[in-house]
Amino acid sequence: MTVTQTAWQGGGMARVDATGAMVSPGTIAPPGHAEGAHGDTPRTGEARQPDSTTHAHTRGDVILDLQNISLSFGGVKALTDISFDVCEHEIRAIIGPNGAGKSSMLNVINGVYHPQQGRIVFRGQERRQMHPTAAARQGIARTFQNIALFKGMTVLDNIMTGRNTQFRTGLFAHALWWGPARAEEVRHRRKVEEVIDFLEIQAIRKTPVGRLPYGLQKRVELARALAAEPSMLLLDEPMAGMNVEEKQDMCRFILDVNHQFGTTIVLIEHDMGVVMDISDRVVVLDYGKKIGDGTPEEVKANPDVIRAYLGTSH
Ligand SMILES: Nc1ncnc2c1ncn2[C@@H]1O[C@H](COP(=O)(O)OP(=O)(O)OP(=O)(O)O)[C@@H](O)[C@H]1O
Ligand SMILES: [Mg+2]
User: Fold this and answer.
1) Each residue's pLDDT tens digit in the chain (314 positions)?
2) 237 CA → ligand 1 middle, Å
3) Euclidean distance between CA atoms 218 and 235, whole angstroms
4) Atom 28 of ligand 1 has which residue's CA nearest to it?
């Protein structure tokens, strides 16, 4: 795949809902999505045009600043002296060949891995490392490269687990289904139903996740992350293994989340068409080092990037 190739450039494709039925035709967001211009050009197809109650979110201040991050596992240097930032409301892509350190970087951001060196500044607070629960409480949610859902549980129950960090009342009150706990449960269910509607998965809400095709499982994982009402969403290859229609839908949902809720998105993706179409800025890793950082146009023109990654088939 070359840098200029776009998976569905200009194609008028029908959407497919959770049952596999055609929903309505629409086109994927056109290329040329300009930096800081969310909403200036229509980025969603006919089926999901933002309504008049939603508004565009222009790129805001830096909310996450990663400084000189180094991480190794024994003798393996997964990340070497990596610095980049993420601004509020932007879609920030991380790309690079297999083993470049992309997933490790997400794991540093949400506290699963603790770097040996470097600083993380999140919303003005400096720390050497994040902790996963603190990251979740501060509004960082994620999906995983390998789907991490409870396969025997229904879609609904899996999405409900995304609300865990939001529970306020204690176990005792919940056990008794008592006053505030009941009100809280109702609030959680309402939020989960909103997410189900948003991602158009009503038809499979009672289905055990293990019975769903891969593409829909990925969508359910996104639903679980959205149920936490994150301000920052980390997506590790959300479209991997999907067919063209599933990718198109996922791409549109990501854009809609960003557009309608202003959610900041950090996205790892191998499909260059997707990355170049929907990202505001792209950071490029290779062998654990940063070799490029900038707008899609800047990254495409960066000779180091072309040599190390984009010029090679993946
Ligand atoms: N928990 C771990 N223990 C040991 N080594 C690890 C661990 N996690 C990552 N690594 C190593 O760190 C390097 C970067 O891996 P990482 O998974 O971050 O790459 P990636 O860019 O996400 O690759 P891919 O595109 O294949 O998903 C690799 O050499 C990998 O083997
Ligand atoms: Mg990875």
Assistant:
1) 333 333 322 222 233 344 444 333 333 332 233 333 333 333 333 333 334 344 567 888 999 999 999 999 999 999 999 999 999 999 999 999 999 999 999 999 999 999 999 999 999 998 877 788 888 889 999 999 888 899 999 999 999 998 876 555 455 555 555 566 677 788 888 999 999 999 999 999 999 999 999 999 999 999 999 999 999 999 999 999 899 999 999 999 999 999 999 999 999 999 988 999 999 999 999 999 999 999 999 999 999 998 876 555 44
2) 14
3) 10
4) 99
* Ligand 1, atom 5: closest residue by C-alpha: 73
Residue ID of nearest Cα to ligand 1 atom 29? 99
**Which residues line ion ligand 2, judged by CB < 5 Å?**
102-103, 145
Is 98 near ligand 1, meaning CB less than 6 Å away?
yes
> Using a 6 Å cutoff on CB, does residue 73 contact ligand 1?
yes
E strand residue ranges, the chain: 12-16, 22-27, 62-73, 76-87, 91-95, 117-122, 125-127, 140-143, 232-236, 264-268, 281-286, 289-294
Q: Is the CB of 101 under 6 A from ligand 1?
A: yes
Q: Which of 304, 307, 305 is nearest to 275 (CA)?
A: 305
**Cross-strand bridge partners of residue 234:** 142, 266
What is the full DSSP assignment across 280-291? SEEEEEETTEEE
